[in-house]
Amino acid sequence: MLASLAMPLYGQNVAPTDIILTPSSVSEGPNTYLPITTLSAVDANPGDTHIFSLTGGPGSTDNGTFYVFGNGLYLNGGPGFDFELKNSYSIRVWVHDGNGGVLEKALTLSVINRNEPPSATLAGDQTVTNVYNTPQTVTGFVTFFDDGDFTVTQSFTVTTTVLSGAEIFSVAPSVSTAGVLTYTPNGTEGVAQVQVTMTDDNSINGDPALSTSTTFQIRSSYSAGVPNVKTLNLNSGGTVQSIGIQRDGTYIVGGTFTTALGTARGNIARINADHTLDTSFNPRANGAVTAIVVQPDGKILIAGAFTTLQPNTAPTATTRNRIARLNTDGTLDTSFNPNASTAVNALSLQPDGKILIGGAFTTLQPNGAATATTRNRIARLNADGTLDTSFNPNAGNIVHTIAQQIDGRILIGGTFTTLQPNGAATATGWLHHRAAEWSRHRHHSQPHCPTEYGWDAGNRLRPECVHGVQFGFLHRPGSGGRDGHRRGLHHRGGHHTKPRGTDQCQWHAGHDLQSERQQHRACGDKPGR
């Protein structure tokens, strides 16, 4: 058998035998007004020039969507290709080789599915009026769309970000994948800008995950005549004597109570920012908790009249005499045990981590020490609960309160009338109103004295305000004079028994008696008393 070959004879034209689209598929996307694909003809005559056009007939269903220019196939206007709406197109193409050869063929152009960014429709901005710590729920707040990618099952994540105004919430806004908005206002007036971001996965032909963000506002306001007041009825059946604030907005209350918000609690409880009880926190003190300080690391110093703690689910109580430190979850910090002999009324945390304590105690026996150390009513502890042996003001009676000035000096108040700091040979008499300030104090005993405790605008003691006053103050070491204590008494106070207004006992602006040293004797005093 002889093989047959279809070869044109010299000078004889052969019509094209095929029409090809290159490529035969296109990715979905917007119309770029560039050629979608290129048309070419299979022709045995290599020198032929081909002319293409769309023609009617079988397979020309979608001819109207396209036009041909040269050998390029273009979209005839319109937004572009959308796989979810139409994933293939049928066209009929006619080609002429310029020498009388003609071919028509129906061709198919396929559309490739690509990942598209999701979108969301929001219900609108939100406004709450006169709402404090009441959770808000808005169902159907967001309707999410995957812009037609319904032909492929994808998973989505939703993130909610407060761009500004976070201070108005006790619980920040959150939007679920079901489109439910939840948040809790904290009673602060203001406007928050909130962003919702929806992100899909990359399950469509390996395309990267895509995100879409949209924003809205939440406004918290109060009507005229309605005060912006946050209230809580602890319903403790006792007294709240101390409060400590934590960084997360929760707060710890201490005192003499047996219940908090209807739940059994032993003199200490933690309240969530929304005014509900933190049921996981239950140190259970067996006596009053009169002072609470939250450390920067979140641990909690407590003091009072208790002698044991039985935190949370502990089966037995642990001895802690009047002062203890709790971990953030309410369990006991077992490394800290100053062990005060009687009540601790006041706590103050110094910037260096040391702890000032005041109360009625007379000894401390920290962290299992073999013997107790005398500390009368005021002491300073190291951060680990051991005693700072360099600090011993030695108050003659109970210390009820402690505060620190910004310059580091320490104010104390209570029922004491003397201090004998750091082993001083004699006690220093303090004012009958029992307040002391390291290095300086102001006082007057006459009801007719001017304001500012009898001191004038130039920081000088008014003469009419010294009658019957026994007054003194403690200088810091090196504050001047051969004897800082004696110098302080001489320059800032004294005592005389002469009637107010007697010339011999008047004071001048320099704070000394107006007369010479013998006039001290006339008043029944000795210099430096």
What are the key terms here?
mainly beta, four-stranded mixed β-sheet, 2 helices, 529 residues
Describe the protein in words.
This protein is mainly beta and 529 residues long. The chain has two helices and 39 strands. A four-stranded antiparallel beta sheet has the order 1-4-7-6, with no helix packed on it. The chain has a four-stranded mixed beta sheet with strand order 2-10-9-5, with no helix packed on it. A hairpin with an 8-residue loop joins strand 27 (308-309) and strand 28 (318-319). It is rod-shaped and about 135 Å long. The termini are far apart. Mean pLDDT is 80; it is low at 1-5 and 430-529.
- What is the overall number of helices? 2
In total, the number of strands is 39
Sheet having the most strands: 4 strands, antiparallel
Across the major sheet, the strand order is 1-4-7-6
Q: Structural class, from helix and strand content?
A: mainly beta
Quick overview:
With 529 residues, the chain is an all-beta fold. Helices cover 3% and strands 35% of the residues.
Topology:
Blueprint: E1 18-22, E2 25-27, E3 29-30, E4 37-42, E5 51-54, E6 66-69, E7 72-75, E8 80-81, E9 88-96, E10 102-112, E11 119-122, E12 126-129, E13 136-138, E14 142-145, E15 157-164, E16 169-175, E17 181-185, E18 190-199, E19 211-221, E20 239-245, E21 251-256, E22 259-260, E23 263-264, E24 268-271, E25 289-294, E26 300-304, E27 308-309, E28 318-319, E29 323-326, E30 344-349, E31 355-359, E32 363-364, E33 373-374, E34 378-381, E35 399-404, E36 410-414, E37 418-419, E38 428-429, E39 435-437, H1 484-492, H2 517-522
Parallel strand pairs: 2-10, 12-19
Antiparallel strand pairs: 1-4, 3-8, 4-7, 5-9, 6-7, 9-10, 11-14, 13-17, 15-18, 16-17, 18-19, 20-21, 21-24, 22-23, 25-26, 26-29, 27-28, 30-31, 31-34, 32-33, 35-36, 36-39, 37-38
